[in-house]
Amino acid sequence: MMIEVLKSKLHCVTVTEANLNYMGSITIDEDLMDAAGMIAGEKVQIVDNNNGERFETYIIKGERGSGAICLNGAAARKVQVGDVCIIISYALMDFEEAKSYKPTIVFPKEGNRL
């Protein structure tokens, strides 16, 4: 049996931009992506701690070292610059494998720095 489990999480990043005129997705600083084991195109869930919004989108690589967390397209309507969000990725794995799997949790500092 396969189950979906937490793969990785960027916990409490700050939204730096909301770009309504871009075709969907979330732009994430490539340093943060690497730290969390996330890749471009990966489906993620976004949880906004300020307003309770929960939605899904996919990742676009942002400039390395920029601290960028930018919600694009329709997702830009669900956040405001300065909101604190959690970015969550999941993985499908065998039930037995999932029992011992350890997700990667990243707690960025101010300015979305590692």
UniProtKB/TrEMBL annotation:
Protein residues bound to substrate: T57, G73, A74, A75
Cofactor dependency: pyruvate
Binding note for cofactor: Binds 1 pyruvoyl group covalently per subunit.
Gene3D superfamilies: 2.40.40.20
Record-level Gene Ontology MF annotations: aspartate 1-decarboxylase activity
Residues with Pyruvic acid (Ser) modification: S25
Involved pathway(s): Cofactor biosynthesis; (R)-pantothenate biosynthesis; beta-alanine from L-aspartate: step 1/1
Keyword Lyase attached: yes
Reaction catalyzed: L-aspartate + H(+) = beta-alanine + CO2
Post-translational modification: Is synthesized initially as an inactive proenzyme, which is activated by self-cleavage at a specific serine bond to produce a beta-subunit with a hydroxyl group at its C-terminus and an alpha-subunit with a pyruvoyl group at its N-terminus.
Enzyme Commission no: 4.1.1.11
First-level EC class: lyase
Gene Ontology cellular-component terms listed: cytosol
Protein location: Cytoplasm
Chief location category: cytoplasm
Superkingdom, natural source: Bacteria
Gene Ontology BP, a term: alanine biosynthetic process
Entry keyword annotation includes Nucleotide-binding: no
UniProt keywords, alphabetically: Autocatalytic cleavage, Cytoplasm, Decarboxylase, Lyase, Pantothenate biosynthesis, Pyruvate, Schiff base, Zymogen
Active-site residues, as the UniProt record annotates them: S25 (schiff-base intermediate with substrate), Y58 (proton donor)
Subunit structure: Heterooctamer of four alpha and four beta subunits.
Job description of the protein: Catalyzes the pyruvoyl-dependent decarboxylation of aspartate to produce beta-alanine.
Family of this protein: Belongs to the PanD family.
Protein name per Swiss-Prot or TrEMBL: Aspartate 1-decarboxylase
Organism: Marseilla massiliensis
